[in-house]
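Hi P.,

Sorry for the delay on this. The queue was packed all week, but I finally got your sequence through. Input first:
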Amino acid sequence: MLTKIQKWGNSLAIRIPKSFANQTNLSNGSSVDLNIRKDSLIITPFNSDEYNLDAMIKRINNENLHEEISFGDAVGKELF
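Then the structure:
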């Protein structure tokens, strides 16, 4: 289905047709996961209200892994 991207404040928005929303169990306020694969935008319904640490760790890869950030020397009883 062809649709258009529209401006929404400083962001861009896409309308999801009702038939697509019904098929994917999306409703107003639903959470979705956005990913880019091979120059394509993938929108996946996110059906969990709780985060799963194991699932999040499995999604770490070389593209989204950042280096350690230094916040300076310890100033109290921090354990390093």
